[in-house]
């Protein structure tokens, strides 16, 4: 089969590799109908996530049809159309039983790596380095999916793949980011990053009752999308002092909750940005904290910081004093996708939400290298790229908004 | 009150015991070298070489501390212990929480034939009698060694202890404790294994096997045990059947 493989920093290629097989009783093989490039794939692309190996198959957002099922699979049959959550969860450990699905104890066969770095392990993730288990990803024609009975969700008849493919990761990720804000009537939620997760976090915040959402970015087309799709007020952090502007917009209080949908490759302005870039380049810090620092400064007293952007290691100059003085709450982590899937599928079926509205580019899987280049450079107003494994699929064409 | 005091005392002694991780010969060398380094450092500072002088005083002081206390932070960080390796064998201890009641975890372990399913260095364990068994281990490069073991203690649902008997290449003993975890979390399984790696040329192969056994391997073994008991099999990221 054909698959998108990682070969090194900014080097992905479409290779021919052996088809996956049923390895364990609870496995299914999914024929991928649609897969996406996620913003967090760009951290792999840019070489910021350790333990990638040449030939690793990328991708953790994919939907498709079951073409083979192991003997222990009871909830699904060959022919079922399914949504595959990006975290792999065993369903049997204490964390899975407490709906902390992405913190699964058993699904990461390389758990010792994370235990040594972080003190404990998270669950495995499709196509996301050997640190996260070394599972092959979904930017391919076929994928082996373990623990099928635990993770998968059937796609209701009549719903096209495009409307549910983002339910595998960024939609639940944005939704969880908003849930973590513990939104009350009248609340204002500010979201750093108007990429896919940021946009869906804004939509989710509105859905969960936020009165106002404010989107922060530096790309005018992204800010435009936040404004038109999410009815967000927008701030360009290269043009204004974000914390000061947010105070002005909220009666001097600051937003009730702040969502970080940026992560470790955050950009800031001025000397601070240079400081982080230099330190990260010299490996003196692994993650850049410009966005996080702004969140801390801007948030209202007693408010919540909801951190959904990916961080991998250590950051410098983290304003702990402000967190203490303002009594802030920090929440974050990988999305517990399984927990939100049934509800989100219902919302899509009832047409209360259509995540596909943020897909800007549709390509053939064969064009993935071009897709990564376009996405990483944010060219051509690129927000989200969906890849179709069929060779005959249409080439890149921007969606009509 | 009395019980808790005793427990505290025991915990403290346990801590003090693990803190000493530098062997006696090395401690003497540390004291001598540390003193020399600190003195030269003082001399350097006297001659206004502040930076190198202070650095020498600092490292000399660290060596003195290491010699004095027998504790080395660097050794601790990288898992080296020259006291327990050279004199009383190699001790490894790990604990894992498994979401099943103690008696179930105990029963799985008590069927000793199950051990090679999760302990990667074991090729097989054969039960040869009521309290005796025959063990085969494989090490790096396909080296193998065998020994007979005898069970010392067997308290159902709580604890199993064993030790090697006869002329084992790598004399060893071990204990596994099964304790109910708080809040319905299952069982805390604590394993303590002592190996006595042989010296001399005759024991070289066995020593290499023993060398391959370490705390990380035991930790991974226990993770596999947890997967087998909680999930039903060892989890894998493999894409194809080999």
UniProtKB/TrEMBL annotation, chain A:
Signal peptide: none annotated. Its cofactor is Zn(2+). Keywords: Metal-binding, Oxidoreductase, Zinc. GO terms for molecular function: oxidoreductase activity, acting on the CH-OH group of donors, NAD or NADP as acceptor; zinc ion binding. Pfam families: ADH_N, ADH_zinc_N. Residues 8-387 form the Enoyl reductase (ER) domain. Belongs to the zinc-containing alcohol dehydrogenase family. This is Threonine dehydrogenase and related Zn-dependent dehydrogenases.
UniProtKB/TrEMBL annotation, chain B:
Pfam families: Polyketide_cyc, YgaP-like_TM. Residues 98-222 form the Coenzyme Q-binding protein COQ10 START domain. Residues 20-85 form the Inner membrane protein YgaP-like transmembrane domain. Belongs to the ribosome association toxin RatA family. This is Uncharacterized protein.
């Amino acid at each position: 089969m054909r698959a998108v493989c990682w070969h090194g920093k900014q080097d992905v290629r479409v290779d021919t590799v052996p088809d996956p097989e049923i390895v364990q009783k609870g496995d299914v093989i999914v024929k991928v109908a649609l897969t996406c490039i996620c913003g967090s794939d760009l951290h792999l692309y840019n070489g910021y996530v350790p333990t990638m190996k040449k030939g690793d198959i990328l991708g953790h957002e994919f939907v498709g049809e079951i073409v083979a099922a192991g003997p222990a699979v009871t909830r699904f049959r060959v022919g079922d159309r399914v949504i595959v959550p990006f975290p792999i969860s065993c369903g049997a450990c204490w964390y899975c039983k407490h709906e902390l699905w992405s913190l699964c104890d058993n699904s990461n066969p390389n758990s010792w790596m994370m235990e040594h770095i972080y003190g404990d392990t998270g669950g495995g993730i499709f196509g996301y380095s050997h640190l996260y288990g070394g599972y092959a990803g979904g930017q391919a024609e076929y994928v082996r999916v373990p623990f099928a009975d635990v993770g998968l969700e059937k796609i209701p008849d009549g719903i096209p793949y495009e409307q549910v493919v983002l339910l595998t990761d960024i939609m639940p990720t944005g939704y969880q980011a908003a849930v973590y804000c513990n939104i009350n009537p009248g609340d204002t939620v500010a979201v750093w990053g108007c990429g896919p997760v940021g946009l869906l976090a804004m939509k989710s915040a509105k859905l969960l009752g936020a009165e106002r959402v404010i989107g922060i970015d530096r790309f005018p087309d992204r800010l435009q999308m936040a404004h038109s799709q999410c009815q967000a007020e927008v701030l360009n952090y290269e043009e204004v002092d974000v914390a000061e502007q947010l105070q002005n917009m909220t009666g001097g209080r600051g937003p009730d909750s702040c969502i970080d949908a940026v992560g470790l490759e955050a950009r800031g302005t001025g000397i601070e940005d240079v400081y982080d870039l230099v330190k990260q380049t010299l490996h003196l810090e692994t993650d850049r904290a410009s966005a996080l620092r702004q969140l801390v400064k801007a948030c209202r007293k007693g408010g919540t910081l909801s951190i959904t952007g990916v961080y991998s290691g250590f950051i410098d100059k983290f304003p702990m004093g402000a967190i203490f003085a303002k009594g802030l709450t920090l929440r974050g982590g990988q999305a517990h996708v399984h927990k939100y899937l049934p509800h989100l599928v219902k919302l899509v079926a009832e047409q209360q939400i259509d995540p596909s509205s943020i897909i800007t580019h549709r390509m053939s899987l064969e064009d993935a290298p071009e897709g990564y280049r376009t996405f990483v450079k944010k060219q051509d107003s690129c927000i989200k790229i969906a890849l179709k494994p069929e060779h005959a699929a249409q080439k890149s064409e921007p969606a009509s908004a | 009150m009395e019980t808790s005091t005793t427990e505290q005392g025991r915990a403290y002694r346990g801590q003090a015991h693990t803190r000493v991780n530098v062997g006696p010969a090395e401690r003497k060398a540390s004291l001598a070298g540390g003193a020399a380094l600190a003195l030269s450092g003082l001399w350097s500072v006297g001659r206004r070489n502040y930076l190198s002088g202070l650095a020498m005083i600092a490292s000399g002081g660290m060596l003195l501390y290491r010699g004095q206390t027998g504790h080395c932070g660097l050794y601790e960080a990288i898992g080296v212990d020259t006291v327990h390796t050279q004199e009383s064998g190699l001790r490894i201890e790990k604990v894992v929480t498994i979401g099943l009641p103690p008696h179930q975890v105990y029963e799985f372990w008590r069927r000793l034939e199950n051990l090679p399913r999760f302990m990667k260095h074991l090729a097989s364990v054969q039960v040869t009698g009521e309290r005796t068994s025959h063990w085969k281990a494989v090490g790096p490069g396909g080296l193998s060694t065998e020994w007979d073991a005898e069970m010392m203690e067997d308290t159902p649902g709580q604890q199993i202890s064993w030790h090697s008997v006869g002329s084992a290449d790598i004399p060893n003993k071990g204990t596994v404790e099964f304790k109910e975890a708080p809040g319905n979390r299952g069982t805390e399984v604590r394993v303590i294994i002592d190996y006595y790696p042989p010296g001399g040329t005759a024991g070289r192969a066995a020593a290499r096997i023993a060398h391959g056994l370490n705390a990380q391997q035991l930790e991974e073994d226990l993770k596999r045990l947890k997967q087998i008991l909680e999930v039903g099999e060892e989890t894998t990221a493999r894409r194809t059947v080999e």
